[in-house]
Design goal:
Blueprint: E1 2-11, E2 20-35, E3 40-45, H1 59-67, E4 71-77, H2 87-102, H3 109-124, H4 132-137, E5 140-144, E6 147-151, E7 156-162, H5 168-173, H6 181-200, H7 203-208, H8 215-220, H9 226-235, E8 240-243, E9 250-253, H10 259-272, E10 277-283, E11 289-290
Parallel strand pairs: 3-4
Antiparallel strand pairs: 1-2, 1-11, 2-4, 2-5, 5-6, 7-9, 7-10, 8-9
Length: 291
């Protein structure tokens, strides 16, 4: 029997659609795997009642198939599904690490990224690695067809999760099919600024690079109270605010001494908009670990 833990993540970070991702301090999913002749899945924890336990419908089932590693899997959800915090990716990442160890497959964490990404296809229809990469590797990651670049960073982060849900499929459907040259140039410049900020662990640069004229405005329309939350966080000292992944979670970066104020302002703004919310104060986290 092997148990692994994988952290929540925030993808896109505004300007890095389907490319950027960052591991969070918390929350996290835990997966325990035990060898079996036939794969079975048990789910407990946050939103467990909404997660299918049939292997062909669960992200970890695809990981089992990719590793040829049948097992009884117990998923303890610390990350609510449809949150924008990489819930499905964390389960897939933790399962990949646990099964790799259980069956002594010998894959490195980097080699497990495409394996765990197969689980994402079950949920969103595409094997995206922008969430599974930081969940497995930790830090700030840049995903390309050629592989993953990981950067260690120490940047304060606040994530505010409202009590509403946005499906990944709906969020992808809201993204425009094209963009203007001006928007393209602006997005590239912002993405470069954010990457430089992560390399320097500079929350001012990271925040400045979160601006995005295309994807974020489209997805923000799906999140009740987003504009108020954005403005409240900025007024409280956030250097940048954006939609976390597909939403509805909202991600902010700020100076270390402003985390509490930013978190409180975001929660209050959601509540003023008629939506309950909770906030996580932390920073860039580590990747999946064996327990």
């Amino acid at each position: 029997m092997v148990t692994a833990r994988a952290p929540a993540t925030s993808a896109n970070l505004g300007s890095g659609f389907d490319t950027f991702g960052v591991a969070l301090d918390r929350p996290a999913d835990t997966v325990t795997a035990e060898r079996a002749d036939e794969t079975t899945i048990e789910v407990t924890g946050a939103g467990a009642q909404f997660i299918p336990e049939e292997p062909e419908k669960n992200t970890v089932g695809a990981v089992v198939d990719a590793l040829d590693a049948p097992a009884h899997l117990h998923i303890d959800k610390g990350i609510r599904p449809s949150s924008g915090l990489g819930s499905s990716a964390a389960s897939a990442a933790a399962a990949a690490v646990a099964l790799n160890e259980l069956y002594d497959r010998g894959y490195s964490r980097e080699e497990l990224v495409p394996v765990a990404a197969e689980g994402e296809a079950v949920v969103s229809g595409d094997a995206h690695a922008d969430n599974v990469a930081p969940s497995l590797l930790g830090g700030f990651t840049v995903v390309r067809d050629e592989g993953v670049t990981r950067i260690r960073a120490d940047v304060p982060l606040v994530v505010c999760l409202p009590e509403i849900a946005v499906s990944t499929r709906d969020a992808r459907g809201a993204v425009p099919d094209s963009l203007s040259m001006d928007d393209h140039v602006e997005t590239v410049g912002n993405a470069a600024t954010l990457t430089a900020g992560m390399c320097r662990s500079d929350p001012e640069l990271v925040g400045a690079g979160m601006d995005d004229p295309v994807v974020t405005p489209a997805r923000a329309e799906l999140i009740t109270g987003y504009a108020a939350v954005h403005d409240a966080a900025t007024d409280a000292g956030a250097t940048g605010v954006t939609v976390s992944g597909a939403g509805p979670a909202v991600l902010a970066t700020c100076p270390p001494d402003r985390r509490r104020a930013v978190a409180g302002a975001m929660v209050e703004a959601f509540e003023t908009s008629g939506v309950g919310a909770r906030a996580y104060q932390g920073g860039v986290g580590d990747g999946a670990t064996l327990l």
